[in-house]
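Subgroup meeting minutes
Present: P.N., E.W., G.H.
Scribe: E.W.

1. P.N. recapped why we're keeping a running log of single-chain structure predictions: easier to compare across weeks, and new members can see raw inputs and outputs side by side.
2. G.H. added today's entry (623 aa).
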Amino acid sequence: MSKRVIAAACALALVIGVGAEVAEGSYETKRADILGRVEALRENAAEESASERLQTFIDLYFEYVMNEFPTFATMIGIPGDHDRWGDNSLEAISLREQDEVTALEVFKSIPRAELEGVDRLNYDLLMEQLVDSVKGHRFHDEYLAVNQMGGPQQNLASALTMMPARNVTDYENLLGRIEGSAAQIESAITRLEKGLEMGVTPPRVTLRDVPQQVKNQITEDPLASPMLKAFAEFPDSVSAEDQERLRNAAIAAYSGKIVPAFQKLHDYLLETYIPGARESIGMSALPDGADWYAYNVSQMTTTDLTPQQIHEIGLSEVARIRGEMEAVMERVEFEGELSDFFEYLRTDPKFYFDDKEMLLMTYRDISKRADNELVKMFGHLPRLPYGVVPVPEYSEKSQTTAYYQPGSLDAGRSGKFFANTYDLKSRPKWEMEALTLHEAVPGHHLQIAIQQELEDLPWFRRFGGQTAFTEGWGLYSESLGEEMGFYQDPYSKFGQLTYEMWRAIRLVVDTGMHSLGWSRQQAIDFFKENAGKAEHDIVVEVDRYIVWPGQALAYKIGELKIKELRAMAEAELGDGFDVRAFHDQVLGSGAVPLRVLETNIREWVDGVQAASAGGEAGSGSGS
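Output recorded in log:
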């Protein structure tokens, strides 16, 4: 099945009520059963309508993903094998790629011409994802198993801390995954070894903090490990006898299996992998690198824009936003150049907290104020709540300023806005309003939580989505601040412009490094020249773009499309434009490709105009 859809699904971790049941039995038995039914779908083509075959395929696809990725099933609250990890060995990845080829062949046997309306759209979206995923088999993301943004040194603890811990069954599941964690680490090492052999590694400079990240997972007291957090304190529903048994088993697994595996990974990284990693920065330096980057750009933007075209869009946006920044600088009567103003914002103590809890409390206050304004901007609001929490200490040094982790109603988990409290002198107050609107509401939490509730959509659209839409919406949400009563302080307005500039800069430096031959320092310097962000933040951001080629392009490209569509709707509807209806329409189909979003909005505008014309005609004839 499509690894692109799976990757998006695992990243978003949305929740859904799906009727399909996962087959019983072992992983291998389930896989064989599912694939057998996929083949039968092709062989029994005459027995079902195209619509019925499409739905059967979608249900089988769901079963397959739940079986291959049991941690995903846990995140969305679907019954499954919550005591095991998915198999990330090279052999398993190769089998999944073979499965994708088979699935695509079967899917093509469903006659599109016999489908109508929503069925045809679902078919087109799934076909595109399957085709793109099979195209991506030539590029080996699996070799890039560890970087400063992710890998077993972060992902294992994160997955375990999201698991429910309410009763003995939950703890048995946790224990099963703890006992299987060493195999996950060993698998990552094997993939790193293969990548080193094939010349596919992250740049050496980006790996500088990774050995310490691994070491942070090794604690003298096992119960101090984030992986064993649930075993430090049990709920009353677990008896004292079971508590002792489970805790002792978890400690034994951690000390006897996980610590040695992490130590092996640490030593391998320090002694072999990092010294052997490439010095080059751009993806174009990798085998098949230029085509790989072009593929990433297409996937992340859902457009046919070339890296050069995106680079030029970025330069244009940087120039425009600089003009707006200079206007704010004049408003506060700052004397000097824009670079001087940046330095002032980076260094004046009044713009920074000296207490981590005060930083978090301020984010929570902004979130609450934003909550109060949502009804003015949206006709439909989600049920799922969210909270503001600090980025975990084991990853905070190399982690970005903030990020959002989706929740799940079925799994009983709220959404979380993670704010980085590391190095408070790189966390200015003037960026906090824009950041909150992006990560929480009306940004990621609102969009993703609403997507959870779109019960008429098939699972792959409710679970997954397009990065250009999701991150484009997040950036667009920042621009809603003034309509919601934010950015009254000119420095906060400058913060919003800084964040918009940050995303415009991404278009320039991402394409610059991965396609146009820019150095890392050239990217850092361009960033510093055009944004007031702290140097630590800038370095972390540039290194993120280096190890996630193309991902950073999604934000500005998506935002520009949403703004373009809003301007079109406002111009054509005039006084009939309703911002709440517009936003509901944008979010009402989930995170779709930008061309689908454009079709949706244009059809909505046509429908509003037709309804208005009909109303006027009816009113005239009646009088």
